[in-house]
Amino acid sequence: MAVRSQHASRPQANTTRFYLSIAAALCQPVRLHRPQDHLPVVRGAVPARHRPGCRRALLDLPDSGEVRLRARLVGVDHYGLGSVSGGTIVDRFGWSWLYKIQLPFALVTLVMVYFFIPWTIEASEDTTSRDETTEGRRLLSLFDWTGALVLVISLLLLVFVLGTAGNVLPWTNPFVLLALFLFPCTVYALVRVEANAQKPVLPPVLVQFPFRNIMINAFFLSIINYIVMYNVTFFFQAVLLETPAQASTHLVAPSIAFTVVSAISGATIARLETPKPTLRISQVMLLCGAVGLMVMATILPRTETPGALYNICLAMPILGVGMMAPSALLLLLGMSDRNNHATLNGGFIMMRSLGGFTATSISTTIVQNVFQQTMRPFMTSEEIKKKIDSVRLNMDNLQTLEEPLRAQVVNAYRTGFIVLFGLVITLSVLIIFGFIGVSDGQVVQEAPDTAEPGSVTEMEDLMGDTDDSDG
Hints:
GO molecular function, one term: transmembrane transporter activity
Keywords: Membrane, Transmembrane, Transmembrane helix, Transport
Membrane topology: Multi-pass membrane protein
Radius of gyration: 23 Å
Main location: membrane
Helix content: 55-70%
InterPro entries: MFS (IPR011701), MFS_trans_sf (IPR036259)
């Protein structure tokens, strides 16, 4: 087995970044062009929780400004390129090619990442292989395997309920009822296991105020982000009767807006040395954007509205998310000493990742349940029922329906999106309330008497190390 190099050379890193960017770009529209699917589909080969880590591992250049610039260029590339090309691929070759065309790029990226990623960032010359093996075994023995297993089981139960209840399976299905019963039981078991674990998977600091509020807000923030991004093409195909190629172009504005506003927010926070102003502004933008989504679903479809206005409605909540994400993370890190930074950062990423797949499941469940309930009075014959089911399986069949059935189907989908965007407004309000009483980012040490020397962290020390591009 080949041994990975201590530092990836610049050509190797650049080549790996290129393939990673292409694979991510092709992954971008995968979920978005199958909005009628009953089960959520993973967005791509590079999950959101892995993207920041991949960039920091591969970019070995000491110039942090160049690192952040290249990371943002990769983000703009894979969001913009994926949004524009996805619809064309679907129209010309079919949605399945969005999966097939990823494979060569993803496999090459996997091989290059394995061989060229640094084995360790800071390796000690006097550390032997035996010492590394012993240390690795010690860490594995301390790992909370029971807590990790219970956590995985609880998350699987949650995803199963959100992805199938009322959609693939009825709410009265025995498996759905069993999952609903077992989920709170596993959560209770997780709390008991973590309370007695030596190295808990979910450390107690994550559930203490104010860290708890920021973690919950990160979860809600990610749900809002992915609800918008995963349902853009679905909305324009089902409500405005656009083709996949036309619908995918509406992804460009919010995708690029996230990357741009994240970069601007980072520079602003670094200049002001506090995330408080950007955090407050982002809350206003998020709430206004959520209201804009409701307007987009209720008023704009009834009028002759230019596409630019739809893009503004889509970009506003994403601008709020893009500004709030780095602000909340810096607020979180600035309120703790260095000993808790890894724990808090890991918890923040975990909550955002959890929000990502929760959003895909819950959005599909809401839209499909509302659609079925709205269309139930119109299912007067077996023929009509088959036509409606064919639309749920393939949005292209919506164009073949005759009036007034087509108008009824469009109205049912629009009602589903109104309910879904109502959830976005609710989560935005909860986020605003969640930040009430939270400090503006000044350092707070939980245990000054046990803190290591130099553990006090000033806000400006965190500026050059945070680049959240989880779009």
